[in-house]
Amino acid sequence: MVNADPKGVDAGPHFLDGDHALAEGALAAGCRFFAGYPITPSTETAERFAERAPEVGALFIQMEDELASIAALIGAAWGGQKVMTVTSGPGFSLMMENIGLAVMTETPMVIANVQRGGPSTGLPTLTAQQDMMQVRFGSHGDYNIIALSPDSPQECFDLAVWAFNLSEIYRVPVFIMTDETVGHMHEKVVIPPADRIRIVERNNYKGPKEDFRPYKFDCQGGHPMARAGDGYRFHITGLTHNERGYPAMTPEQNVKVLTHLMEKIDGNAEQIIRLEEDGLDDADVVVVSYGITSRIAIRAVHEARELGLKVGALRLITVWPFCEARIRELASRVKAIIVVEINYGQMVREAERCVAGRCRVVSVNHCGGAVHDPKVIVGAIKEAAL
Amino acid sequence: MSTQEIRFSGFGGQGIIRCALITGKALSLYDDKFATMTQAFGPEARGSACSAQLVVSDEKVLYPYITAPGVLMALSQEAYEKYSGEVIEGGTLIVDADLVKPHPEHPGRTLWRVPATRFAEELGNRMFTNLVALGFFAAITGVVSDAAMKKALPGLVPDRFLKINIKAFEKGYAHGLDVMRPAQAQAEAATA
Questions:
Q1: What is the rounded distance in angstroms from the CA atom of residue B41 to the CA atom of residue B25?
Q2: B53-96 pLDDT, tens per residue?
Q3: Which of A140, A181, A349, A384 is deepest in the core (most CB within 10 A)?
Q4: Are A358 and A315 in contact (CB under 8 A)?
Q5: Hey, is the C-beta of A208 within 8 angstroms of any chain B C-beta?
Q6: How do residues B31-46 score in pLDDT, each as one tens digit?
Q7: Are B64 and A188 inside 8 Å of each other by CB?
Q8: What is the 3-state secondary structure (H, E, C) of A29-50?
Q9: Can you tell me the mean pLDDT for A25-50?
Q10: Looking at the domain that runs over A2-199, which CATH code has it been given?
């Protein structure tokens, strides 16, 4: 861990929206390459990055589309840069194929999805949380990723920095699953001085050239990369590959590669999962939420507590990997788990899987376009507490 | 917990969003409050009534949107017609004296008319209308301090227009204090 480069850190208090805060977090984390295609409600992040790029020696490219955006990120990452893009629903769909390539090639990158209502072009200017399953399963094949969900512009900054750190450690695309409300909402954002921001630098290989291996299938993170152009001979491919990166298309090798891709995340879930918990110790009912919805849910939890109900709040800051162990533990001692989200019921499926019938699981979902009415959540808590 | 909900409205180009940004920045950076600003982004926000919302609180704002505004600033007739009905009892309406013809009465609410556009023209440019109105708003509502508002301006108005914007704010603020005086005296007389 080292300190952030002061050039990228606009330290001090600001009044920013979540999109701008994402760009500032990326710059503070050392991101110096952005390739993207504008789409509401994420465009402000690209604008901020483009505006600041000349000050910090970063490169901003407006690509022809979102497929090319991820392709450019993969190339720039192997060129030694920390890289990012932002998008929303339709653009996210276009990114899926190359996200798979980034996962397979173990290329660090940060992708923010400022979610809007779907499907298709849906509700361009209105909020949603409808891409929570797509982020985990949208590309083909078995794979694993990390996804974080900020509830405020401040957390957009904080999680952007952390997302880059995680992506460097685990060499995996890390997703910031925010939404139109947080993206466009202005609040106070305090950016710490550079020496208070801990960042993980790119682990560039420094050993003998003949010993360099771009891959090590040991279910762990922390493996070095080499920069294209520095004279190392290695290969990057979407095909199942060996430790030098060359195609090795056998069932045996696929077991090694796939197990590594899955377990470097799941096996380190304790380091990756960050939760915010409130009043869970004596709770009869637990309200699970994430992103903007958690603010409304926590307000509802406060109101329900004033009515004398024993209810706690669990906010998923890390959405993927899912907090399986915590949900299993809670399910064995509470009456009900309520999952609140702005979609037709997505993360609730994960909750149901982990609960496995040990308590009630209630989905308080509603389709995209607006946040919940806190009264609806209070109503669900009352009913679940009976 | 004391929470205030404020809507700034008018037509596109009047600097309505800027009003909310300046006030939000002033409150959250210099007045030690929590402020959350949202604005309408949809196609309905283009070319007609333009609006920005601010939730102000002593504690972290959880629900980011306004549901029962206590203050409405309306700098156009359309905005006034669209939003005046939502102001809660005991609330305050601030309208541009020349651009808005208010309804005869707003029972239980106080309506103030500020010649913001006229004052701005006297200062040399209509562009400063929003700052005059903001000064008036700060004086009348007391939601935000004038010192914080002036501190918030750099970065939110062009540098070369900073001084004149401060002047516009001060003009609106002084006018606000002036028109409040007889109202306060009346209120004091009524309670005496």
A1: 20
A2: 999 999 999 999 999 999 999 999 999 999 999 999 999 999 99
A3: A181
A4: no
A5: no
A6: 999 999 999 765 555 5
A7: no
A8: CCEEEEEECCCCCCHHHHHHHH
A9: 98
A10: 3.40.50.970
Alpha-carbon gap: B41 to the closest alpha carbon of chain A (Å): 6
Exposure on the CB side of residue A236, measured as CA atoms within 13 A:
19
In chain A, CATH 3.40.50.970 sits at 2-199
Q: At A112, give phi and psi (nearest 5°).
A: -100, 135
Per-residue confidence at B184, pLDDT binned at 50, 70, 90?
confident
Which two tokens mark B118?
A: 């006229």
Output Rg (C-alpha) for chain B, integer angstroms. 16
The predicted complex's ipTM stands at 0.94
Query: CB-based contact (8 Å) between A299 and chain B?
Result: yes
For every residue of B86-141, which 3-state class applies, written as one string?
Answer: HCCCCCEEEEECCCCCCCCCCCCCEEEEECHHHHHHHCCCHHHHHHHHHHHHHHHH
**The length of chain B, given as a count of residues:** 192
Q: Is the Cβ–Cβ distance between B28 and B56 less than 8 Å?
A: no
Mean of all residue pLDDT scores within chain B: 93
Residue with tokens 């196609």: B43
* pLDDT tens digit sequence for A201-231: 999 999 999 999 999 999 999 999 999 989 9
Q: Delimit the domains of chain B by residue range.
A: 3-191
Annotation: CATH topology of B3-191: Pyruvate-ferredoxin Oxidoreductase; domain 3 (3.40.920)
Question: Each residue of A101-149: pLDDT tens digit?
Answer: 999 999 999 999 999 999 999 999 999 999 999 999 999 999 999 999 9
B95 CB within 8 Å of a chain A CB:
no
Q: In chain A, list all ranges with CATH 3.40.50.920.
A: 276-385
CATH code given to domain A276-385: 3.40.50.920
